[in-house]
Amino acid sequence: MKPEILIYTANICPYCTMAKRLLEKKGVAYSEINVDSQPGLRQEMMQKTKRRTVPQIFIDDFHVGGFDDLYALDQRKELDPLLATGA
Fold first, then answer.
1. By three-state DSSP, how is residue 15 classified?
2. Cα–chain-centroid distance for residue 1?
3. Phi and psi of 53, rounded to 5°?
4. Mind listing the pLDDT tens digit of every residue in the chain (87 residues)?
5. Can you give the pLDDT at residue 87?
6. Number of structural domains the chain divides into
7. pLDDT at res. 1
8. CA torsion angle for 11, 65, 38, 17 (degrees, to 10)?
9. Is 39 helix (H, G, I), strand (E, B) or coil?
C-alpha cells in the first residue's frame, strides 16, 4: 500500500519547490498544506514538528524533516523503500 505523503510549504520557498520536484520525479502523490494560506497552519506545523521552517515532510507518521533530510534519504538509497511501503 502506498504511503500518505504530506508536505507543509510556504509561498516563496525554493526548498519547498525542490522537495515537491523530487517527490514528483519519484512518481508519488502528496498532499500539500501551504502554511501561508490561513492563520494557524504554521503553528499547527510547529506543534507537530517542533520546527518552524518549511518544507516539513511526512511519509505516513514518519517525520522526514526538510528538503535536506529528504535529499539525504534519497542519496543513501533509503527514500525509495519508504515511498514504496510507507514508514
1. helix
2. 19
3. -90, 155
4. 789 999 999 999 999 999 999 999 999 999 999 999 999 999 999 999 999 999 999 999 999 999 999 999 999 999 999 998 776
5. 65
6. 1
7. 74
8. 20
9. coil
| Structural domain harbouring 32 | 5-85
CATH of the domain at 22: 3.40.30.10
Residues 33, 58 contacting (CB under 8 angstroms): no
What is the arrangement of strands in the sheet containing 5-9, beginning at the earlier edge strand?
31-34, 5-9, 56-59, 62-65
Nearest in space to 7 (alpha carbons), one of 47, 65, 78: 65
* Ranges of H-type helices in the chain: 14-25, 41-49, 67-75, 79-85
> Is residue 3 a contact partner of residue 86, using CB atoms and an 8 Å limit?
yes
- Quick one: 23 exposed, middle or buried, by C-beta within 10 A (0-12, 13-18, 19+)? buried
* pTM (predicted TM-score): 0.94
Instruction: In whole angstroms, give the CA distance from residue 18 to residue 40.
Output: 24
